[in-house]
From TrEMBL:
Coiled coil: none annotated. The keyword Cell membrane does not apply. The chain crosses the membrane at residues 73-93, 99-120, 302-321, 341-365. The lineage of its organism: Bacteria, Bacillati, Actinomycetota, Actinomycetes, Pseudonocardiales. It comes from the Bacteria. This is KAP NTPase domain-containing protein. InterPro entries: P-loop_NTPase. Keywords: Membrane, Transmembrane, Transmembrane helix.
Amino acid sequence: MGDDELIAGVLFGDDARGLLAEERIPLREAHETLSADPELRERLTTGRATFLRDPAFEGVITSRLPEHRLVDLRLAAAFAVVFGYHLLLVRAWPQLPWGFAAFAVAAYLAVLAIACRIGYRWIAPLRGLFRRVGALPVEDLWRVYAVEQIVWPALVRYVEEKRTPPDSTEFTYRAVDGLYRESPSATPVITGAGERLRTAVARSETGAIALAGHRGVGKTTAIRFVAGGVLGDPDRPPLAVVASAPARYDARDFVLYLHALLCKEVITRTHGAGQPQRWATFARLAAPVRRRERAAHVVRSLLAHLVAIAVPVLLGAWAWGRPPLEFVTDPPPLFRDLTGWRIAVLVLAGLVALTVVTDLGAFAWRAVRGLRPVRPADPRLRELRAVAGQQLRRIRFLQTYTTGWSGKLTLPMKSEAGWTRSTQSAEQQLSYPEVVDEFRAFAEHAAEVLRATGVTERVVIAIDELDKIAEPEKAQELINDIKGVFDVPGCLFLVSVSDDAIVSFERRGIPARDAFDSAFSEMVRLDNFTPDDTRNWISRRVLGLPEQFVCLCHCLSGGLPRDLRRTVVELLDVPAGQPLSAVVEVLVRRELDRKAHAFTGAARGIEPSPERSGLIADLVAIPTVRGPGELRALAAKIDAGDGLAALRTQAAAYLLFSATILEVFTDDLTRDRLYRVPGGEPQLLALARQQMAFDPRVSMDLTASFRAARGLAVE
């Protein structure tokens, strides 16, 4: 086999096709590139003469060995069935009539054939290995070695190179995948903070972990990764409950809400997931069609079985010389005076009867399973599901039970005596400590049963969107109220908290910080994307986007994941094929228009004054400013104005940042000029964008440092 055939054999295989399709790389392009690769050709030429001495050759052989299994239940069962049937046939053979004997022999041969087929499937991989290695076909061994050790690694390197963003200032890309809607099967981007969270989750079986970070940094995504097993074992994800933090209702109601969610999830995992609402609606709409199809299937099956029964009846009537009706109502002795035709008819009748009985049994089994739910095999799971259902009903309803009786007795002297009794028993509202105790007891029991039965190793309860509570004191109060449930054995709590809330807690002094520290066993801070994180995230969604545009998106978004997605979506709205400067102009102008409206709206909300009017006049003129020089001049003018210092600094910081973006991302920008400027790394510009939300003056200082390192004008 020649080198070209080796390369083509790898590329046209299912694994290579799947890899290339995932990366949106045309098969023809990959084939032409690898075929023309001189390094690959050289390795194939030298490898043919030396591969038998390569230590990796042993791995080529051992990788083909099947997994060692001490006992194969299928092979043992097949042997037991054949052996048992053989003993039964030998024991009953002298008493069997000829017809039954023929049928028994046919069935024995069928069982033997099935057992041989099962055995052949089990030993086929081992036989293939012995055939290949025992005969020592050097050419075949070379082909296997070349594919696994030379051609496939070359293909992987080629795909990695294609995944690396090219160095170009022309706006091009190959394909877009998973940008507008996050696919559950998409490979996630695990950042350094994600690895820290993975480690924290792996070593914590009980307690609470706080997820800190700005809004939009990916706390909800991190919770979803933990719940789905991405930051753990994907094959055995935890039993996860995700609840949004309350905006108004109190801690008692929230713990009851967590309790109800946990009960529902336990019922789902121990009984099978129910249909989503949209599928339930579709099922109701499709019910008439489904009923007609089932009725037609039943009619067809019934007719087929009637025909199958009629054939041996007619043949039997002919073989025994009786009318069909008489043959059925008054059958003759079937096992007397047997001839060859009569034996064949009996064998056919037995096969038809076996088929009909099997089909009817399968139909009855499906009908019974359709009428009742599938019960878990383990009785502990059935008990847990029953307890969860009872707990859920107790949370939802207040049970009331009333009994009473009344009697009347008339005495002779016209006097009357009456006695009535009425008792009412109502389950009273549980106090908050009782609610916490009920939740802790059920959560601990559920975690223990689920772990003992092998359903999952842990229970994860996540509280998301705590940062939507506007007042930090309210968020602190909620955490302090519900932290009594955080130390349930076998349950891990994840609570997403904004950086603003954490800063507020820490500023309130030692007691507040101690209360916060006592609630959480560990805190993981999720940061903005680094340039490498951004490159990895974009390369999985916009394939083939040049490095200059990747860096542009990182700087404009500041590395904030939520803003990064929005920036990339806006970038793709620009027609492909345009130069970098034109694309930057479009993106910056769009953002300047939005920021001008936002700044103007904020200024109009301030009490009227000459300073406010002057600032508004400058702000409304932002969309008309052209070129980075005019933007810098307007930024300096706004920053030097009197009054409204906070708003002026915000506007000036963004104008200076926008001017810098326009000056840096030009058509002559190369990868080296982008990254190899000491003190002028693009990450500094991304940090300036991040600081606009916290301290615009710091943002202006960072932008000024970046401009100075790049040799740009500094006002």
